Amino acid sequence: LQHHHTACLVQSIRLKTQGPVEQYGLKRFSTAEATVILREDGKMREKTLTMDTLNPQVKAVEYAVRGPIVTKAGDIERGLQQGQKHPFTEVIKANIGDSHAMGQKPITFLRQVVALCSFPELLNSPSFPEDAKQRARRILQGCGGQSLGSYSASQGVDCIRQDVAVYIEQRDKGVPADWDNIYLTTGASDGISILKMLVSGQGRSRSGVMIPIPQYPLYSAAISELEAVQINYYLDEDNCWALDINELHRAYQAAKEHCHPRVICIINPGNPTGQVQSRKCIEDVLHFAYEENLFVMSDEVYQDNVYSPDLQFHSFKKVLYEMGPEYFNTVELASFHSTSKGYSGECGFRGGYMEVLNLDLEVKAQLVKLLSVRLCPPVSGQAAMDVIVNPPLPHEPSYLQFHKEKSAVLGALAEKAQVTEQTLNTVPGIKCNPVQGAMYAFPRIFIPPRAVEEAKSLGMSPDMMYCLRLLEETGICLVPGSGFGQREGTYHFRMTILPTTEKLKVLLEKLRDFHIKFLKEYASLEEPKR
């Protein structure tokens, strides 16, 4: 290890003297030379953490939304900035539901309240409306030292939890909400970590988690990390991605052979599928969960994103209440909301909440203990969440501007949902269900058999090859359907509807041209030799 110590001493001397090291009687080694000498001595210290010693559950985690195609898109984008030539001038990222990154403007009132909380001196400024100041003062009074920089309670700031409870009661037309059941979270993703409490057992008694396919890959990633058993139930693509109670029974009965199903997850409105589940579907799920003694996790972060005029969002909690006390007082339900979606699109604040019903009191104490390990969610995100659940009222000075901005965002999304569906359905070999809600289209694409064979020879899924080709030839970044799950032999991609209307139309036109060219290319190939 002499060379190692010498190298450290050389570095120390260099830092202290900023002069040549030869004067100290030491030989100057470059980093590369020192590494070579260490290797020749055979005494180089091995790394503790390698791919061989890495936790296998970490290796099993996959998250397609930020997967290899997105990494490739970043490389191309940097290359464009450095003057590299491509057949396009920009990368259009339609891979992730990041509204502000795609050009959406912040809601003024939300930013005003958070700004006032962050820099209370602004409370004396006449530039801010009184209703924003009132909310900021109330939030700050609930913070330690009246500062957003203090830790909050692990469950979140009390007054914000109370506002969430009032919001839920109003949303659900009077269904009671207890703020003691509200937990503020670091986005909805943090709340979904409640899965940790539900995973136990070994072998056939290991906890199984039922998730929709297609699904948001956060769920499969969490299941892999926790070594739980993933139980797939397939949404009905031919029926606008509706839940099918018979499919739930099939998946449940099959899973009982190798695990203990304990949880069912639902995403409504759907990601990546964009459907809005009917009240009947929700009631069927809750009855199924009641009969099979399942814990229900309802991801409702897109509850404000409903575009079809003949549909509406139904919360699982409201439907459970309407099913009667036998259900409402017994079925364990965790539901989630977030600042990241809806009309605000405030992904970076990482604000969210979960409401948990019918939790055993001793288990509830364990949940608080688990949450206390991460101390608290970002308090600025909590403040942003408060504005979502406590927006300006009609008699307040900020109401008109707030209502105008909110309506503009949701109106534009509804228009883009319709444009996306209609345009994709004009392309031969692409079929897109109505984008009823959320922020995504998940069209089915026909990939010719020869392209399928080529993809397999390259060791990748056919829709992955399709999306890579699309990126390299057009600069459009989408996520292959295989990253979300799909029925065997079908292929899809997920795209957001978040780009500006003008950019979305360019994207759809480029996508149409690429797909037609792709079909022709593989249709004209000679029959592969067998």
TrEMBL record:
Gene Ontology MF, one: L-alanine:2-oxoglutarate aminotransferase activity
Enzyme class of the recorded protein, top EC level: transferase
Cofactor: pyridoxal 5'-phosphate
A GO CC annotation given for this chain: cytoplasm
Record-linked InterPro entries: ALAT1/2-like, Aminotransferase_I/II_large, PyrdxlP-dep_Trfase, PyrdxlP-dep_Trfase_major, PyrdxlP-dep_Trfase_small
Pfam family, one: Aminotran_1_2
GO BP terms: L-alanine catabolic process
UniProt-listed Enzyme Commission number(s): 2.6.1.2
Keywords per UniProt: Aminotransferase, Pyridoxal phosphate, Transferase
Pathway: Amino-acid degradation; L-alanine degradation via transaminase pathway; pyruvate from L-alanine: step 1/1
Catalytic reaction list: L-alanine + 2-oxoglutarate = pyruvate + L-glutamate
Domain Aminotransferase class I/classII large: 130-511
Family annotation (SUPFAM superfamilies): PLP-dependent transferases
Quaternary assembly: Homodimer.
The family this protein is said to belong to: Belongs to the class-I pyridoxal-phosphate-dependent aminotransferase family. Alanine aminotransferase subfamily.
Summary of the function given for this chain in its UniProt record: Catalyzes the reversible transamination between alanine and 2-oxoglutarate to form pyruvate and glutamate.
Name of the protein in question: alanine transaminase
Organism: Oncorhynchus kisutch
